[in-house]
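Researcher: Batch entry, complex prediction.
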Amino acid sequence: MQVADSAVTAQLATYAATAKYSDLPAPVRQEALRSLFNILGCTLGGARHHGVDIADTALSPFTGQTQATLIGRGRRADPLHAALINCLSSSIYSFDDTHEQAVVHPSGPVASAALALAEQKPVSGEAFLAAFALGVELECRLCKALTVPPAKGSMAWSGTGITGGIGAAVAAGSLLGLDMARMRTAIGIALSQAAGFRAMHGSLCTPLMPAQAAQTGLRAALLAQAGFTSSPVALEGRYGYLTVFSEQPDLDALTGGLGERFEILRNTYKPYPCGIVIHPIIDACLELRQTHSLDPDRIASVAIKASPGAMALCNNRNPKDEMQAHVSLHHWTAVAFIRGTARIQDMDTETAVKDPALMAFQDRVEATLDPNRAADAAEVTVTLTDGTNYTCRIEHGIGSAARPMTNAELEVKFAGMAIPVLGEERTQALMRQCWDLTNLSDVGNLARAAG
Amino acid sequence: MQVADSAVTAQLATYAATAKYSDLPAPVRQEALRSLFNILGCTLGGARHHGVDIADTALSPFTGQTQATLIGRGRRADPLHAALINCLSSSIYSFDDTHEQAVVHPSGPVASAALALAEQKPVSGEAFLAAFALGVELECRLCKALTVPPAKGSMAWSGTGITGGIGAAVAAGSLLGLDMARMRTAIGIALSQAAGFRAMHGSLCTPLMPAQAAQTGLRAALLAQAGFTSSPVALEGRYGYLTVFSEQPDLDALTGGLGERFEILRNTYKPYPCGIVIHPIIDACLELRQTHSLDPDRIASVAIKASPGAMALCNNRNPKDEMQAHVSLHHWTAVAFIRGTARIQDMDTETAVKDPALMAFQDRVEATLDPNRAADAAEVTVTLTDGTNYTCRIEHGIGSAARPMTNAELEVKFAGMAIPVLGEERTQALMRQCWDLTNLSDVGNLARAAG
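Model: Structure tokens for the complex:
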């Protein structure tokens, strides 16, 4: 593969160093705010995960001054450690956002790097949101350029691992006010540390890959600010980033229509912390439960017509732990009918996976393959003990590209994750503060309020 | 490419977790000590480079407790920062070691991670040298397995960037006493953060890649010790390390004859801090100068028959700065005849590249292509003002595989780098302490003596 020397890195750096909040169309500002709102909730949701505890405890002897908030953990650390830990929290339940085309979860690395920096000196909500939007934009563009046709690339790479760093570096560089040359250096440094492959699936290294991108991206911006150097053609140069990470990159996806076409508008959010092919099934179960005020004790059986993806990945009646429950459609069907929810705590090994009521209900759930059903569709029929049947068909699950989550649905998701950590009152205040971001004069207050 | 699931990661982890100093043959111990001696000198040599100043200054606000020595910098920091900065120093002049076959500079990441850890709690010289030797061994094996035929891999990757982490993780894991399972986890974590490509050549990102490997490798061992998780098949698994970093890995190079065949025996050291194809020319000039007690003012001209590599890369009569001087055979010929040396300070922009005496001498140097001359060979003829001619032919330059540097030559190199930083007395004491490593009860003292 040869990439034309078309100053790709310089183009991206020029855009990142010059675009302002006032340059962003209203829908871009809105989606950036929704992305930030969602990832802040996810960060709170993951903040008490044992994997985060392990990393924070193991590394805290090596951390510096307590200038930055470890979100949801009740303590502070240096910004580089905060970027790592907060991004780890945000992605540890795979409950974060996903670009509709590129397999990248863009907000975690960008938000974690930018929030850690925003606690160093006051930054306005508008400047912060612009920095965040630019980081997400370039990260999504880069990931799309690597793998989405007409590009050809290997699925073995972790999309967020190898592109999160540019997002974090750009957002941090924007907040630091880097000029074009230093922004280009920051991008180059961050890309030179891009890493991660998918063999790590199912281990704590999966969330560590975006976390590492957050930290190295922030560090790249700090080094560039101080005068460190990089290749000015890190992306397109001989033996450069595009050569090693893609068989045939799509340069138009990377640099075409910068400032006019926005990939952040294709960002999507998950309503439930489980395998995405289970989502329409949960939608159907919750709708049936509410519409017919169903008492789970009256349910004799549940018949699910499931998509090929759901059957291949999630047809597991008796999950043994959180990892298995995450991808068991039987588990989530039981949770939806019995608890009327589908939250992080509903896959906790002790309080959910081993809950006798849920385990008993799973035996009444039967899934069958519907080969023509789309991945975001499902049909669920309940049969009551008196013989009554109710059926619900979902054509597009909540959170799919065709049926984006509303702001109200994002709030339910946020609250479900934040209330166990911050309590009801602080959660409500934090949500209001986040929606009101562009009126803040010091975004550091948002991070501190989420401590 | 498909890699057979032959438990490659587990094999390496088992070896790394169980091999002891007593298992290492005497030549392996000796070469490990020589490698450590050399890299400690290189770390001192680079410690005052402006690129190290930039990184240390930019990142020091984010560093933690001052438990570890920043070698040659007169201050201390947390071990993760120390691993980064010390490795950066060790590689910033490209004066470090090189495996004879694989393009990897193995000792920097391993020594930097291990020394930083050795200051946390006392470790004996024997245990330290074994940990260092194991790290270097697995790093060299991995790099060889990626690219040296019969393996096929891309030269675009930074060999040290993508394999330094396993070396650092194994050495640190050995010092921490990790069992096989945790060693395997440490290796997996480190590999999941492997990064670096060659487009960075000529910028400070080039030494940052091994530095990053040192830091992430050390961190991987700390995380594994604390219970973090990784894939148990990080190397050979589907979408794993070997898939992404090699078209066709050579598994025998990786795991064949573990504990019997040692790649560290093929480690080589450079006597001069310049492009390696210039080395035999410098050897010839220094030998002529000494043998005939040549006064440079009596030299009318120097005629060099140079290898194709030297002509292609280093035929630059008037270098403008340190970067250009690094690869100018005219510059180093002048330095050798006038100063009788070839040290880091002999390519300093202000005190060497712009030295009028050196610049004037360069005009008297003429290089011509000898198409059949090997890369480690050269022929130099001086003509004196009285018409006398002297010729010196070098068949194998010092430091080449056929003519390894002696311990005495390593001492000259070490002293040349260390004395400007530590002074004569401390340098001599440090060299003695390093050669005496296996009798030390606390290797932390070695690091502290190099502060």
